[in-house]
Amino acid sequence: MNLDIREPLEENLGVLETAALLRELTAGLIAVTDFDEALTRLVRVARDAVPGVTWCGFTTLRAGEPAGVAGSEPRLAELDDLRHGPDTPAMSAIRRREMVLSADLAAEDRWPAWTRRARALGVHGVVAAPVDVDDHVIGAVNLYADRPHVLTARRQLTAMLLAEHAGLLLAAVRDRARQSARTGESDAALLTEGVVGQAIGVIMTQRGCPAPEALEVLRSAASSLDIPLREVAERLVATVSRPRES
């Protein structure tokens, strides 16, 4: 009896491809704190990891800010921005909150101006999937093909999983950026605050290091001794201020 194993094999390969994509995307964004850098990494990973995709772009809408874009290919960046108005795959996906597909732009009539420009740039298929980042940022990841009918149903599923995973990772990037900003503000205050500032000055003098490095030395000591930072600073200042015995 002959069994056709091609379909199960293709499905397994699709699962492995998607798992590899999500793993690579996570590795690329796990420690990033700059949102724009995260978008740049995302589009490059998606371009290289999703079979059938030649280019990738990302359209971003942030509350109170102009729309932003990131693209794996600079010459195609205009396809992701708003110069074509609201009639684009990305904006359709964002407005409708669902994935938008055109497997062959030669037969597409939903976005006339955008489609003419896309075909002139060598784009023949597109999938746009909405991405929810947080209450202030939404967007769409846009996958482009240089041939018609290569963005199959399996590629649509990959795009959907990519968008959902990207939303979680980008939300984490924004959280890290906010935390980094708060830490920076806290550091700036500590550098000039009373006894902590004095202790930092002592360490700078002793080690010949800049203030941020001295603050990290102080924090490391507080962590090792399991006592508050201020107490470590007080001990250090008291030690260097103690009169020496003759």
The general outline is elongated
Listing every helix as H and every strand as E from the N terminus to the C terminus, the arrangement reads: HHEEHEHEEHHHH
The CATH homologous superfamily name of the largest domain equals Transcription factor LuxR-like, autoinducer-binding domain
- Which stretches are low in confidence, meaning pLDDT under 50 for 5 or more residues running? 1-13
Helix content: 55-70%
Q: Strand content of the residues, in percent?
A: 5-15%
Domain ANTAR: 176-237
Pfam family, one: ANTAR
Protein name: Antitermination regulator
GO molecular function, one term: RNA binding
Structure description:
By secondary structure, this protein is of the alpha+beta class. It folds into two domains: 7-177, Beta-Lactamase (2-Layer Sandwich); 193-241, Orthogonal Bundle (Arc Repressor Mutant, subunit A). The chain is 56% helix and 13% strand. It has eight helices and five strands; from the N terminus they run H-H-E-E-H-E-H-E-E-H-H-H-H. It has helices at residues 6-29, 35-49, 89-96, 112-120, 153-192, 194-207, 211-225, 229-241; strands spanning 55-62, 68-71, 100-102, 125-132, 137-145. A five-stranded antiparallel β-sheet has the order 2-1-5-4-3, sandwiched between helices. A hairpin with a 4-residue loop joins strand 4 (125-132) and strand 5. Helix 1 runs antiparallel to helix 2 (35-49) and helix 1 (6-29) packs parallel to helix 5 (153-192). It is elongated. One of its GO terms (molecular function) is RNA binding. Keywords: Transcription, Transcription regulation. It comes from Micromonospora rosaria. Residues 176-237 form the ANTAR domain. This is Antitermination regulator.
